[in-house]
Design brief:
single chain; 127 residues; alpha/beta; 2,3-Dihydroxybiphenyl 1,2-Dioxygenase, domain 1; 2 domains; 4-stranded mixed beta sheet; 2 helices; 17% helix; 39% strand; elongated
């Protein structure tokens, strides 16, 4: 079988509080989110990134926090300042900036404990 994939990916997050999640992704991380009506069910969120990635958020406390790790690649030159800003917003830094193959990485947790990672290629700047 020849599997053909479209460009792009959707990643699903199960969350305990859709309002708190919307605030975190939109206001703290700066990712545009659109709330979708769930009709008789809880509302859900969608975030699109340049037609390549969709993040989908569904409320459901029994599965909250159990989702895949998502890695966001940062532009060269500002990994430490991004983490500093996130820490000032009260975001949990799970793993500080550490050397990774081809660059640097760090992990944070969103409000439900979902692990999120950042990657920056190249040399880490002093600031």
């Amino acid at each position: 079988m020849d599997l053909k994939l479209k460009k792009g990916i959707a990643i699903i997050f199960n969350v305990s509080d859709i309002d708190r999640t919307e605030h975190f992704y939109r206001n703290v991380l700066g990712i545009e989110t659109v709330r979708q009506s769930g009709g008789d069910e809880a509302d859900w969120l969608i975030a699109k990134w340049e037609d390549h990635v969709e993040l989908l958020f569904f409320q459901g406390t029994e599965k909250a926090g159990r989702s895949p790790v998502v890695v966001f690649e940062l532009e060269d030159g500002y990994m430490e300042s991004v983490l500093e800003k996130l820490a000032n917003e009260g975001v949990e830094i799970v793993t500080p900036v550490t050397e990774a193959p081809g660059g640097w990485s760090a992990e944070i947790a969103d409000p439900d404990g979902h692990p999120l990672a950042f990657f920056q290629s190249g040399e880490l700047p002093l600031r």
